[in-house]
Amino acid sequence: MSTTTAVPDLDDPSTDPFDVARAAADHIAEATGVAGHDVALVLGSGWGGAAELVGDVVAEVPTHEIPGFAKPSVVGHGSTTRSICVERPDGSVRHALVIGGRTHLYEGRGVRRVAHGVRTAAATGCETVVLTNGCGGLHISWRPGQPVLLRDHLNLTGTSPLEGATFVDLTDLYSPRLREIARQVDTELPEGVYAQFPGPHYETPAEVKMAGLMGADLVGMSTTLEAIAARHAGMEVLGISLVTNLAAGISPQPLSHEEVLEAGQKAGPRISDLLARIVKSL
Ligand code: 8IG
Questions:
Q1: Which of 44, 87, 138, 278 is surrounded by the fewest CB atoms within 10 Å?
Q2: Alpha carbon nearest to ligand 1 atom 11, residue
Q3: Active site annotation includes 191
Q4: pTM score, two decimals?
Q5: Of these residues, 203, 207, 226, 236, which one is catalytic?
Q6: Which residues contact 3 (CB under 8 A, 6 or more apart)?
Q7: 6, part of any domain
Q8: Partners of 219 in beta bridges
């Protein structure tokens, strides 16, 4: 065990969030025995089973023990952050970091917590991050269980993970190179624009219509702020959504959280396999 050094408080405005990410990365290196990681995965609704298929789990760390990550709000529901050894087709090995316990903006813990996972991934050495989510779809032809590559996003949260005069170009935020690799794994993968709403309520049918008029194909409550923070931290970003429901008003049926979970479970094996094959090809 290392000597404990005080970790600056992420919620203190005078703290540099990158210092906390550095402390988190040091903790991960020590707790996993893996000095550096190459690719990070953030698993959203429906994607939880994917990690095991990506490779061998080398080490697991309770996420709340990592500096800057919050204690689990439900006892016994703490998530873990895993280090996974990925063998690529050419036999080379890469270290994947699966960050457990995504913080959503709607939890009200502040945008620094939302961004902390990807900043930590960057600090561990990751040059690539794969952000996944479950979301609502605006196209009737995309049935629940449909995976969609993110081509671009609409950040409708009214906030940014960046502070001060931090001007970051987002022209190619969702890497064309990584999307091409993903499409080589599955040539049928459609692409879409993801609109992040603040949540936690789902949209009204009028809001879904508005999002569609603005160019959205998908609506959700995560991903865009993390993608911005990831790009700012120097990572290449791949985003993949799982359509778990038709967005409000697209289908005559109201949205039910149970149905959303069920669609995720049903699609689980297929999208886990997809994600595993993509990560091995990155
Ligand atoms: I899963 O229809 C899931 N997450 N905003 N709208 C929004 N978030 C979602 C939805 C949805 N489905």
A1: 87
A2: 136
A3: no
A4: 0.93
A5: 203
A6: none
A7: no
A8: 136, 195
How far apart, in whole angstroms, are the C-alpha atoms of residue 26 and residue 21?
A: 9
In a domain, 8, yes or no: no
Q: State the closest ligand 1 atom to the C-alpha of 44, by its place in the atom list counted from 1.
A: 1
CA of 193 to the centre of ligand 1 (A): 14
Does residue 178 form part of some domain?
yes
Residue to mutate (ligand 1; options 135, 148, 193; most atoms within 8 A of CB): 135
Q: Which domain holds residue 100?
A: 17-281
DSSP SS3 for 58 = strand
- Specify the CATH number for the domain of residue 56: 3.40.50.1580
Neighbours of 177 (CB within 10 A): 11
Does 147 reside within a domain?
Answer: yes
Token pair in block for residue 93: 């090995």
Tell whether ligand 1 has an atom less than 6 A from the beta carbon of residue 223.
Answer: no
Domain count, the chain: 1
